[in-house]
Amino acid sequence: MTPRHRAEEFRRFLNLVERSVPEGLEIHVVLDNSSTHKTPQIRRWLKGHPHFTFHFTPTYSSWLNLVERWFAELTTKWIRRGSHRSVPDLVASIRTWIANWNDEPRPYVWHEEADEILDGLAVYCQRINDPGH
After folding, report:
1. 10 Å Cβ neighbour count for 8?
2. Looking at per-residue confidence, does 126 or 16 come out higher?
3. Cβ atoms within 10 A of the Cβ of 10, count?
4. Domain-by-domain residue ranges, the chain?
5. Measured between alpha carbons, how far is 125 from 95 in angstroms, rounded to an integer?
6. Is residue 14 within 8 Å of 49, Cβ to Cβ?
7. pLDDT value of residue 36
8. Where are the beta strands (DSSP E) in the chain?
9. Hey, what's the torsion of the CAs at 125, 32, 52, 49, to 10 degrees?
10. Which of 10, 65, 67 is nearest to 38 (CA)?
11. Fewer C-beta neighbours within 10 Å, C or N terminus of the chain?
12. pLDDT digits 0-9 by tens, 27-74
């Protein structure tokens, strides 16, 4: 958790990951399409660290929706119910939530089959492409 989300903070995060992972392992990082992840500074860093591979999720991807669902749960069940008098207090509270969650993690699971999701998407696309819309 950082107060700002710039390329500099992201580079520091990547350095932390590198220090934490045993040498000789490939590191695959799944990212959203934030411009922070694609700056010249980060591209230079990536060239100097060929054992890192970035994988960018498609915009509106289902995987990212599940991550956003987790943050929504954090917000509604923890942050909004708490009282935070300062940013450090809020950060400590979020870290408590994460620790509690990790003690008994509950994965988010899609309840529809891929074909059902694609059929729904096809109906939606047809509707918005209809000239009468």
Report:
1. 14
2. 16
3. 19
4. 1-56, 60-133
5. 41
6. yes
7. 81
8. 27-31, 52-56
9. 120
10. 10
11. C
12. 998 887 778 888 899 999 999 999 999 888 766 666 677 778 888 989
